[in-house]
Amino acid sequence: MGPLGVLVDPMTWRAVPYLLVSGVVGLAWYFVLAVTVSASLVLALFWVGVPLAFATVLLWRGGARLERRVLRLAFGIRLADPYRPRPERGLGAHLRWLLKDPATWRDLGYLLVLLPLGAIEAVFSAAMWMGTSGLLLAPVLYGLQEASGGSGFYAEDWTTSWIAGCCGAVALVLSAYQTRGMAWLHGTLATVLLGGGEEERLRASRARGIDAAEAERRRIERDLHDGAQQRLLSVAVDLGRAQSKFDSDPETVRELIAQAHAGTKAAIAELRDLARGIHPAILSDRGLDAALSGLAARAPIRVDVSVELDERPPPAVESIAYFIVAESLTNLAKHSGATEASVTVIRDGRGVVVDVWDDGIGGAVVVPGGGLAGLADRAATIDGVLVVHSPVGGPTVVRAELPCEW
């Protein structure tokens, strides 16, 4: 990136305050962890330290979660939480889940490394920007000095002050590059410690994908068994009764055949709905725009759809995007109390971003086994990420970032 690009890039200036205060943040975490961990170890002899240790682990994991969000704002680094799935119940199971998860200890390592790393970043950043500011402001300060009749503290004359100002312009470019360099180094370390190893991430993604596929298979089996299969069985019984009464009671036969005909149509409708739930034909034939417009037309509230894709993404991406929107619209119709919603699909670099917004009451959360968790599992099958922002009182935004290469 050229000098002008570095200077006008907002990411450069968002990184500056983070690097200046990272040392203070690291020092604060060091003292907090030193006190809480030490107290937990000492009090563990009397069993009092067990709940304190549990709270301490939750504290530093919460700090790591917060750091991932801050790094995204400061450096533009997207780090998904790499934790293993939470157990459904049991205090002992939760404690084992916390302590056996490698991401827990990488979180602790990052927060401890943040002190020396942040101190170096803060010292270098402060010295660099103070020196740059002094050089850039040299003409202004000399002018104020001349106006007040002071001595030559900032510069001996105008020539010297303008030379210092020119040197400040060069220093500004160098400072911007140094800021980006430190941000890159910090982001690389954060990716290793807070983002988890690539192999573990892929293994977790594959496991979630397998679980999602297994849950989908069970749903299809349940729908077939409880729906179409039962209706077809009823049709067979009606036709058998009609066959036995074919000669003796024509009127009853006519009623049974009519009943079997109605049952057959109902079974066909259920099979059609089931097939649409597996993969809608309109999605394969006409793509996301038409398929999502069909979902919006069936929604009980007004839903605006905007699909801005230059070319069709891979079929797996289309399918996952479709079902994320379908489940989100179903949820908002049932629970949100929304009066309007919107669906936006855009191409962002090498991936597709899907946003579903509604003006409902908010409060949606991702819980294990819930519908939103199932959508996150679907996205994880292709290394995608699903984020839900739903404060109490609304609005709610469900965002899925789906890579087109995995």
Automatic annotation (TrEMBL):
**Where does the sequence pass through the membrane?**
12-32, 38-60, 108-138, 158-177
Entry keywords, A to Z: ATP-binding, Kinase, Membrane, Nucleotide-binding, Phosphoprotein, Transferase, Transmembrane, Transmembrane helix, Two-component regulatory system
Q: Which Pfam families match?
A: HisKA_3, Sensor
The UniProt record lists the Signal transduction histidine kinase subgroup 3 dimerisation and phosphoacceptor domain at 216-281
SUPFAM superfamilies, per database record: ATPase domain of HSP90 chaperone/DNA topoisomerase II/histidine kinase
Q: Which reaction does it catalyse?
A: ATP + protein L-histidine = ADP + protein N-phospho-L-histidine
Query: What is the organism field in this record?
Result: [Actinomadura] parvosata subsp. kistnae
Q: Does the keyword DNA-binding apply?
A: no
Span of domain Putative sensor: 18-194
A single cellular component GO annotation: membrane
Please state the Enzyme Commission number of this protein. Answer: 2.7.13.3
Its lineage opens with: Bacteria, Bacillati, Actinomycetota, Actinomycetes, Streptosporangiales
GO molecular function terms listed in the Swiss-Prot or TrEMBL record: ATP binding; phosphorelay sensor kinase activity; protein dimerization activity
**Keyword Kinase included in the entry's annotation:** yes
Q: Quote the protein name from its UniProt record.
A: histidine kinase
